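WARN no homologs supplied; continuing
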Amino acid sequence: MNIVVCAKQVVDVSEIKVDSSTKKPILSGVPQKISDIDKNALEEAIRIKEKHGGKITVVTVGPSDAKERIKELLAMGADEGVLVVPPQNADYSVVSHILAGAIKKIGGYDIVLCGEASIDMFSGQMGPRVAGLLNIPQITYAQNVVVEKDKVVSERNLGDKAVTIESPYPVLITVTKEINQPRLPSLMQILASSSKPIHKWSASDVASGKLEPKIKTVDIKGVPMVRKNVIFHDDLDQCVNKLVDELAKVGVLR
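OK structure emitted
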């Protein structure tokens, strides 16, 4: 079972601060990481490999320093990595063409796994775009994946219900964060990962023709968070009841 996992390097959104005067996020100095849900995709790939054998290749489209993030994925259990450096101002269209081209160049794949969305933009577009360019079936928002000899069976999360879907190979699957708990590599696995190959390709190595962005980012602003600062002064039981009622009113509790 040959599996390709698409993983994105993102800024650690938990470390982002917003400039109170301009409302713009302060990105300078924010640490980089692999998008959390892409690690769920890799964990699922590892579990499939542990049952059925095969090979896992991780593909990242990003700057040269993304190589350091790929090493973490190799330590988790991927067999090799591919880093493709995109042109400037690469948007969803450009990156999806590069990913699809890289996957075609890798070749011989049975399953392509992606996170349902990245934690920075959370558009959920990349998996479906890549599946379309590869002209293969796709299963999105998978909360369960069962690999069989000639098909994959998956439960697709639709919010308040799940739909069971089957697909032949090759297939692209985007997974939810709830599908598993990504493993932490041991010290020995981290040391052993240094001997695993990371191939660095250019965009022209994998995508033919001119790559033109379709979307222009005009501005980025932080979302202002205004606290209500509601304080209950009654006895403890009454405070708890009022807190529960208040949380239910705003939809936090059902």
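The helical segments are 36-52, 66-76, 92-106, 126-134, 187-192, 203-206, 236-249.
OK
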